[in-house]
Amino acid sequence: MRRRGVAVAIGCAAWAVGLIAHAQDVPASPSKLPERRAIVAREASTRVLHATFSYRDVVDADVQRKLQSGLTTVIVLAGGVFDADGGGSPVPGTGVWQSCRVTFDVWNEVYRLQIARPEGDRKAVAVNLEGVLRRCTEVRALPVQGVLTPSARYFLAATVEVNPVSQEMLEQIRRWVSRPPGSGAVSPGDSLFGSFVGLFVARIGKADRTISFRTQTFVMPP
């Protein structure tokens, strides 16, 4: 699971960087993105850095209608850590990600959710749209993947997409992140890494809705 999380973090961070760099409606530099507040803290027992923030605004009236239609809707968050004092350059091997697959059960009138995070997947049920928003457009204690330097200053930049990829692409991604142990480290030069990032870059402008933002600058605890 840890290996899978690192692999997804690298790919998702690159995806977010690519979207930020190419999307027409956002600045080319992640440091210039609209800022929203986040709680970034390290858990005392595990020493893992966690982030808590919201992106409810990705669900506009059109997305809300999709959620209530009975068709499956996927909301994906992916982002990376950037050096606040190094010109806003991305920190290799870092990232945050969460995906939420939502299907409205028209017979029982509940929303069935499949939520994937670095620490594992889980299923949930929401009785109304508010429950969907709370579970799928807010992240609480989301693990920040990667190694950061104590006392250095960073910020998170992320992209959220609604229905970003086709089922065929999802299957390719699933195969990519399920690489067997011992297959070697993942790096930007890895051909599979390139294919993975390319899947998302090819989708720029094709998602139902996309938003990008950055957090405030935070200092990595010593």
Please tell me about this protein's structure.
The chain is α+β, with helices and mostly antiparallel strands and 222 residues long. It has one domain. Strands 1, 4, 5, 6, 7, 9, 10 and 11 form an eight-stranded mixed sheet that branches. The protein has a three-stranded antiparallel sheet with strand order 2-3-8. Strand 2 and strand 3 form a beta hairpin. Helix 1 packs across helix 5 and helix 4 packs antiparallel against helix 5. The N terminus is likely disordered.
Provide the succession of SSEs. Answer: HEEEHEEEEHEEHHEE
Multimeric status of the protein: single chain
**Which structural class is indicated by helix and strand composition?**
alpha+beta
Give start-end ranges of low-pLDDT stretches.
Answer: 1-27, 176-204
Percent of residues in helices comes to 25-40%
Average residue-wise pLDDT: 77
Number of strands: 11
Structural Rg: 17 Å
* Major sheet characteristics: 8 strands, mixed
What proportion of the residues form beta strands (DSSP E)?
25-35%
Number of helices: 5
Distance between the termini: 27 Å
Quick summary:
This protein is an alpha+beta fold and 222 residues long. 26% of the residues lie in helices and 33% in strands.
Task: Using brief descriptors, characterize the structure shown.
5 helices; alpha+beta; disordered N terminus; three-stranded antiparallel beta sheet; 222 residues; 11 strands
Topology diagram in text:
Layout: H1 2-22, E1 35-36, E2 39-42, E3 49-54, H2 61-67, E4 73-83, E5 96-105, E6 110-117, E7 120-126, H3 129-136, E8 138-143, E9 153-162, H4 167-177, H5 191-201, E10 209-215, E11 218-219
Parallel strand pairs: 1-10
Antiparallel strand pairs: 2-3, 3-8, 4-5, 4-9, 5-6, 6-7, 9-10, 9-11
